[in-house]
Amino acid sequence: MPSPDAPPAGVAPRRSDRSPWNWLLVVPIVVPLLVPLYNRDDPELFGWPFFYWVQLAFVAVGVLSTGLVYRATRRSSADRAAARRAADAPVTRPTEHDGGR
């Protein structure tokens, strides 16, 4: 017996993008804007001033946080399968016999 929250057959499950995990995506946007935190030369890494190598580290932080949010918020395999079935279902169009509805 299907669960009461399951959508009817042929209908994709509703997707909610209101996860608290999405707030983690603010970090790689806001932190690089706080320039006074990293506007200096020391410490150097392989001869690169702090200002430059920390910006490269921000790229890694952005990639990691985006990957983490993706993994935490993706649909379950059952929801993905239901969405795939709904997308593959034939589209029925109204005919003259249906009164155009």
General description of the model:
Helix content is 40%, strand content 0%. It is mainly α. The protein has a domain of 70 residues. It is rod-shaped, with a radius of gyration of 24 Å. The two termini are 31 Å apart. The model has no long low-confidence stretch (mean pLDDT 82).
Could you outline the blueprint of secondary structure elements for this entry?
Layout: H1 27-30, H2 50-73, H3 77-88
Number of E-state strands:
0
Compute the gyration radius: what is it? Answer: 24 Å
**Can you tell me the residue ranges where pLDDT is under 50 for at least 5 consecutive residues?**
none
Mean pLDDT, to the nearest integer, reads 82
Q: Quick one: biggest sheet?
A: none
Contiguous helical run count: 3
Which percent range describes the beta-strand content? under 5%
The gross shape turns out to be rod-shaped
| Terminal CA distance | 31 Å
How are helices and strands ordered from N to C?
Answer: HHH
Helix content: 25-40%
Class of secondary structure makeup: mainly alpha
